[in-house]
Amino acid sequence: MVLVTWDDATAYAKWAVKRLPTETEWEYAARGGLAGKRYPWGDEITHDDANYSGAEGRDKWDKSTAPVGSFDANSYGLYDMAGNLWEWCADWYGENCYTDSPLKNPAGQDTGTYRVVRGGLGTPIRAVCVLLTATTMFHLLGTAATDFAVC
Ligand SMILES: [Ca+2]
């Protein structure tokens, strides 16, 4: 499912008796057990690994999302944890979240202005904590779509 707001993703997760992952849970899942690497498969990215800006190799989508399963899953069996589209996390964005959070199972701030999305545009797992509101996300929908996972 793409082109959904954070509220819609949260409502779906609640209906399914699940919830959106925290940013920490998302990152753990994205790594697929591969620690210390930029992407779920290693430190480099090519168009044979994921859908991101441009099209070549296995990446045949220049300005659209690829169907799930177009690229290899990570070792946890999860698809598109880098590239293809942005995925909502439960967390409010915190500017100092990486330095001010507990080391074990941080759940993010209690309040905020922006929600966290992760995974899109072929960016490294740890490189971005993108700041978007539902309004700004809709302005970006021409170039990026938002998806969600539930846990
Ligand atoms: Ca592409």
Question: Rg, please?
Answer: 15 Å
Heteromolecules bound? calcium ion
The domain tally reads: 1
Q: Average pLDDT across residues?
A: 80
Describe this structure in words.
The chain is of the alpha+beta class and 151 residues long. The chain has one domain: paralog of FGE (formylglycine-generating enzyme). The chain has helices at 6-15, 23-31, 97-100, 134-140, and strands spanning 86-92, 115-118, 130-132, 146-148. The chain has a 4-stranded mixed β-sheet. The radius of gyration is 15 Å and the shape is globular. Calcium ion (CA) binds next to loops.
Summary tags:
globular, alpha+beta, binds calcium ion, 151 residues, single chain, paralog of FGE (formylglycine-generating enzyme), 4 strands
Give the SSE layout.
Elements: H1 6-15, H2 23-31, E1 86-92, H3 97-100, E2 115-118, E3 130-132, H4 134-140, E4 146-148
Parallel strand pairs: 1-4
Antiparallel strand pairs: 1-2, 2-3
Summarize the structure.
Helix content is 20%, strand content 11%. It contains 4 helices and 4 strands. The site of calcium ion has 7 residues, from loops.
